[in-house]
Fold this sequence. Notes:
24% strand, alpha/beta, 37% helix, Rossmann fold, binds adenosine-5'-diphosphate
Amino acid sequence: MNAPVQLTDVQKLYGTGSGAVTALGGVSHSFTQGTFTAVMGPSGSGKSTLLHCAAGLDEPTSGEVHLAGTPLRGLDETALTELRREHVAFVFQAFNLMPALTVYQNVVLPLTLAGRTPDSAWVAKVIQSVGLDQRTKHRPNELSGGQQQRVAIARALACSSAVLFADEPTGALDSQTALEVLTLLRDQTRAAGQTIVMVTHDPVAASYADNVVFLVDGQIVSESPTHTAESIAAELAQLARLAAARRSPEAGVPR
Ligand code: ADP
C-alpha cells in the first residue's frame, strides 16, 4: 500500500556519551495514503521528535525515513526544502502567520513561495470551509486565536499537499472551533486522499483520527484503529503509569 510517510527503525539520540537521551528508540511505521493518524504518548515520549524526523525537519541518528517516496538520508537542506514545499504542509500550535500579510496572502504564501499560481477558486473554497470568507483582507492581529489557527489550517489545505503534519493543531482553540477544525482535517483525508499525521495529547482530538499510535519512551507500544475518546484516555492513563513504573521499577505497575 502506498505510504507517503514511512519510518524504518528510526533512532534519534540527543547528546553523546553518558548524557545521551534516546528520544526515539527504533520506530518503524507506515502512514498510508489517505489516513489520519494521531500520535499520542506521555510528555517526553518522543512525539515531537517523531514528527520532526518524519517531516525531514530533524535528522535521525540511524534508520530511514521515506517522505513521498523519497529517502531523506543524504538530502541536503535545499533538496529537503524543495521536497517539503512540493509534498508537505504543516500546522503547528504557534500559527506562524506573517503579521504584515492579509488572511488571503497568508493562505497562498506557501504556493507563491513554491512558484505555483494559486487556483483562486480552490483557495476561496478552502477559506470558506474554515469560515473565514468574511475575513480575507484582515491581518492576523485583527483575528482571534481560533481564527488565526483556521488561517494556518487553510494555508495547509490550500497546498493540497500529499502529507500534512500537525502538532497540537487544536491546542489553542475553544472546543467548538477545535471540533470544526478536526472535522475539516478528517474530511480532507476522505475527499483529497491527504495523509495526516497529528501529534496531540487530547483524546477527543485523537478520536477523530483513523488510527492512534501510542509512544512510550521513544517506542511505539500500541496502535488503536478503533477507539473512542474514552478508550484513548484510558490507554493513555495506563501508558503513563507504565512509563512512570519504567523510570522507578521498584514501584511496579499499579493497576
Ligand atoms: P514529546 O513530544 O512526546 O513531549 P519530545 O520528542 O519532545 O517528546 O522529546 C523526547 C525526549 O527527547 C525527551 O526526553 C526530551 O527531553 C528529549 N529531547 C527532545 N529534544 C531535545 C533536544 N533538542 N536536546 C536534548 N534532548 C531533547
